[in-house]
Amino acid sequence: MASATTNHHDALADLRTQIINATSRAFPDLGAKATVRSMGVNVMPQSEASDSEVVAAAAVYQDTINTHPLFTLLRKATFEGMDGLGIKTRLIEIAGLRDDAIVRLDSYSAEPVKCSLNPNCESELEKIDPDVRPWVGSAVKYGNTAGIDPRLVLAIVYNEGGYRSDSFIEREMSYAYDVFIREGGNLIRPNSLGLTNMKEYTFNELKSKFPAEFAGKNWSDLKDDPDLAIMAATYNLKRIQDQYAGEVPDELKEKYTLDQFLAAGYNAERNIPDYFEAGDLGPVVQGYVRMTNTALDKAQQLLSGMYTCK
After folding, report:
1. What is the mean pLDDT of the chain?
2. Could you tell me the pLDDT band of residue 201, with boundaries at 50, 70 and 90?
3. Cβ atoms of 230 and 134 closer than 8 Å
4. Radius of gyration of the chain (CA)
5. C-alpha closest to that of 159 among 131, 205, 207, 198
6. Closest by Cα among 112, 152, 122 to 307
7. DSSP-based helix, strand, coil % in the chain, nearest 5
């Protein structure tokens, strides 16, 4: 397609030159002058042409145009390469989409969101629950570095256990929760650790894929290290994005944003091939995505005072 576009540009310039050169033959007795303008060629006979002279001139110009390579190029319905790229078909499909579906599609090709501190960040920080403040800093730090929206990182923190910080009772019960639910595990559901609820095989996969980031870190460290847990969640989202985002079928992209897909993958990565085949998420993980939407709103509220995210 790029070659065809270049050929069109070059052929158009040459055709204008050929038309200028043909003017002396088109109006041999009228001393006509021809000049190139932005939208074409301007032909000005020095005296008024008769009807027969106009007809004769038109025949000369027609022959010049019909025998030029540009005429052959423009007779084609589309540029060469368009069909191979599926551009025409895709444009027709896009034209039939709702605006929100287009927004969701665009999220897969958009530049990563990064958050930067606002001038009044210190006063805004004081408004945030002291237990939550470190999470915000970690989400922004690791999200910006890994190319994952920090708001999504913070939403995952809330999904996986952060909501338990919202009240005294939940904070006090969190230790028992970790011991009984997460660290107990069973043969069907292996145990998980830390603020972001990560299983050992997932953490080891991150160590293998991102050795520099997780050098000297072990899965057991997650239990008492929220910063490490948030870093692990961030890089797990990045791993899922690197591995799957380029293969998401359009049918799925039209229904879910990239962030929603990554959240679904974080919750149930083993089911991603099934989602691709079905063109939709399963009913259970759809509930997780709805929870993520709520958590994203909360993350946006937390970050909006301290940071500008775009």
Report:
1. 85
2. very high
3. no
4. 31
5. 198
6. 122
7. 65, 5, 25
DSSP bridge pairs for 167: none
Residue with tokens 């990045």: 238
Does the domain at 101-309 match CATH 1.10.287? Answer given as no
| Dihedral (CA of 248, 254, 258, 261) sign | negative
Nearest residue to 189 (alpha-carbon basis) of 294, 83, 268, 78 = 268
Q: Per the structure block, which two tokens stand in for 144? A: 């910006």
Nearest Cα residue to 236 out of 194, 276, 273: 194
CA dist list (Å): 212 to 216, 217, 246, 309:
9, 10, 25, 27
Rounded CA-CA distance 233/241 in Å is 12
Indicate the domain borders of the chain: 1-76, 101-309
pLDDT 10s digits, 215-246: 999 999 999 999 999 999 999 999 999 999 99
C-alpha distance from residue 223 to each of 41, 94, 217 (Å): 76, 47, 12
In this structure, which long-range contacts are made by residues 206-213, counting pairs with CB atoms below 8 Å and at least 24 apart in sequence? 206/232, 206/235, 206/236, 206/239, 209/235, 209/239, 210/235, 210/239
Give, as one character, the DSSP assignment of residue 190: -
In the DSSP assignment, the letter for residue 182 is I
Residue in the block written with tokens 């629950």: 129
- Partners of 308 in the beta sheet? 116
Pairing of strands 198-199, 192-193: antiparallel
Cα dihedral 255/287/114/216 (nearest 10): -130
pLDDT level of residue 101 (50, 70, 90 thresholds): confident
Q: What CA dihedral angle connects 111, 89, 95 and 79, to 10 degrees?
A: 80
Distance (Å, whole) CA 87 – CA 275: 26
Going by pLDDT thresholds of 50, 70 and 90, the confidence category of residue 70 is confident
Neighbour tally for 134: CB within 10 Å: 13
